[in-house]
Specification:
By secondary structure, this protein is an alpha/beta fold. The chain has nine helices and 13 strands. It has helices spanning about 20-30, 85-90, 95-115, 150-170, 195-205, 225-235, 255-265, 290-295, 300-315, and strands spanning about 10-15, 35-40, 60, 75-80, 120-125, 175-180, 185, 210, 220, 220-225, 240-245, 250, 270-275. It binds uridine-5'-diphosphate (UDP). Uridine-5'-diphosphate binds near residues 182, 195, 210 and 212.
Length: about 325
């Protein structure tokens, strides 16, 4: 893209103060980009980007991405990461979740089109809903309840994927769609309700670990550095259809709780709580496409990633 001018590449990251957004900003700065971060702090926090204060290649704009994005400079890449992403958050902010996935994606695509930039949508394994195909391949269309409590997130992201493909087909925009599976690491919000911060904070406080249902539902957890590397490679590829990025090592929520108790050295016990409605029974990415196209696969074993995450949370509980 900058072959002639050799200008420093410029990236716009929406959701830059969030868990994934802030790690993406760090990687882009490390790889020589100038970065413009946008966030309205609805679920993100300034703490995640505080270390960037004074970095002349980083600029922050506090704005809701559903409002018009005006930037008076060239942009090469738009990374659309803004959205509440934990079930507790999107239950609390269902309308904002629908708006950022629809209107926010429209604004971010409009910015990319205006700047002739390449666009990447952070989509989700939630587009598969409570999947009837296991592990999930990208060509599975999903099993989503549009009117259930998770519908606001799942349908917003499905709409966002459809809108991204429409911009690709009609405007010939260079677009990428990553379907992100459960990811964990430092900078997750302690109280975001997701299983990783919930279990680690409960274990560190000596409180019971709240396993929903009988804990036999499965998830597959990817460490954040692996995820961000996959996302970066996808943007640089020339592949417009969705690509799963996640770690295919699958375990039950109950096994996960026991592992957290072991790794924290906690004396917490396990308390079983009701299973939330529409909680997916099984989730594991089929990452054959990412392996082949991006030469990517996760490198960080669960135990190594969890130890780093536990260290981060230790100083914060
Ligand atoms: N979960 C749990 N206890 C908690 C939080 C979550 O047992 O305190 C379960 C939840 O029911 C789900 C899994 O852990 O089966 C992962 O939940 P999370 O909220 O992290 O995200 P999801 O993968 O459902 O989007």
């Amino acid at each position: 893209m900058n072959a002639k001018t050799k200008r420093t590449p410029v990236s716009v990251v929406t959701g830059a103060a969030g868990f994934l957004g802030s790690h993406l900003v760090d990687l882009l700065l490390a790889r020589g980009h100038r970065v413009i971060g946008i966030d309205n702090f609805i679920t993100g926090t300034v703490d995640n980007i505080a270390h960037l204060a004074g970095n002349t290649r980083f600029r922050f704009i506090q704005q809701d991405v559903t409002e018009f994005l005006f930037l008076n400079e060239p942009v090469d890449y738009v990374w659309h990461f803004a959205s509440p992403a934990s079930p507790a958050d999107y239950l609390e902010f269902p309308i904002q979740t629908l708006k950022v996935g629809s209107l926010g994606t429209h604004k971010a695509l409009g910015l990319a089109k205006h700047k002739r930039a390449r666009f990447l949508l952070a989509s989700t394994s939630e587009v598969y809903g409570d999947p009837l195909v296991h592990p999930q391949t990208e060509d599975y269309w999903g099993n989503v309840n549009p009117v259930g409590p998770r519908g606001c997130y799942d349908e917003a992201k499905r709409f966002a994927e459809a809108l991204t493909m429409a911009y690709h087909r009609e405007h010939r925009l260079q677009t990428r769609i990553v379907r992100i599976f459960n990811t964990y690491g430092p900078r997750m919000r302690l109280n975001d309700g997701r299983v990783v911060p919930a279990f680690i904070s409960q274990a560190l406080r000596g409180k019971p670990l709240t396993v929903f249902g009988d804990g036999s539902q499965t998830r597959s957890f990817c460490y954040v550095s692996d995820l961000i590397e996959g996302v970066y490679r996808l943007m640089l590829s020339n592949y417009p259809l969705p690509v799963n990025i996640g770690n295919p090592t699958e375990l039950t929520v109950l096994e996960f709780a026991r592992q957290i108790i072991r790794l924290t050295g906690s004396r917490s016990r396990i308390a079983f709580k009701p299973l939330p409605q529409d909680d997916p029974r099984q989730r594991r990415p089929d990452i054959s496409r990412a392996r082949k196209l991006l030469k990517w696969e996760p490198k960080v074993p669960l135990e190594v990633g969890l130890k780093k995450t536990i260290e981060y949370f230790r100083t914060r509980v």
